[in-house]
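COMPLEX REQUEST
Ligand: IPE
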Amino acid sequence: MPLQSAIDNPGIPAHIGIIMDGNGRWARKRNQNRTQGHLEGLKTAKRIVKAASDMGIAYLTLYVFSTENWKRAAEEVGFIMGLVKRYLIEEMDFYRQNGIRIRYTGDFAGLPEDIGGEIQKALENTKAFPGLQVILALNYGGRDEIRRAVGRFIQDRREPELSGAEAPAITEGGISQYLDNPDIPDPDLIIRTAGEFRTSNFLLWEAAYSEYYISDILWPDWTEEDLRLAVLDFQKRERRFGGIIKP
Ligand code: IPE
Ligand code: IPE
Ligand code: MG
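STATUS: Structure written out below.
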């Protein structure tokens, strides 16, 4: 079945989040360095971004690097950061051709300066593009996002005159406004590759009612067809949000 078949269905998810896992295992299976797995994973990311764009998905959040991933060897961390930078710089034509807008979530202040600079440029250069919005979760942790939101929230409660806005209410909606991208709807579907059944700190607040889809396939091996299967699976789910669906 072509990808288009999913688009025709009105139940297509507006927002998909992907925990792109298994790069290291992919490399180990081939007796290669872990960095080779990340290189291959980057190619997959581009393939899946294109497929999501063609499907008509509105938002795609990619978990690129967690606040916990700094525990890895400096060589691996440096390699991943280098890949991100290269991807941001080299893919401008790809973004333009497909109308892809780049967004960011995570602790921006904790990023190496050169990476932060490239992200800033990509956000600026793609901000008018009308198509798929790709949110890069880089130096991202769900708890960290809530921590940063709470910090700004408290500041505005104490001294609302500083931000010029009214003091925010202690409601779910009020707190949500302080998350990294309050305009983006919660993810409908969260995909994790490489067969692990955990969130690893991804979108903790936003995923309260997301549907999860676990794929055994390692991220570098993921294809457009796997995305299509995930979306078709999602479309069979009955989302109740705590309510009851009348028969
Ligand atoms: C995901 O692949 C990429 C990042 C977390 C940056 P891994 O590097 O975690 O791959 P495995 O889990 O070791 O196979
Ligand atoms: C989650 O994968 C983070 C990313 C995909 C960026 P990890 O490989 O870091 O997760 P754990 O350590 O297996 O939980
Ligand atoms: Mg992993």
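REMARKS: The pocket of magnesium ion (ligand 3) is lined by residues 21 (CB under 6 Å). The chain has one domain: 13-141+186-235.
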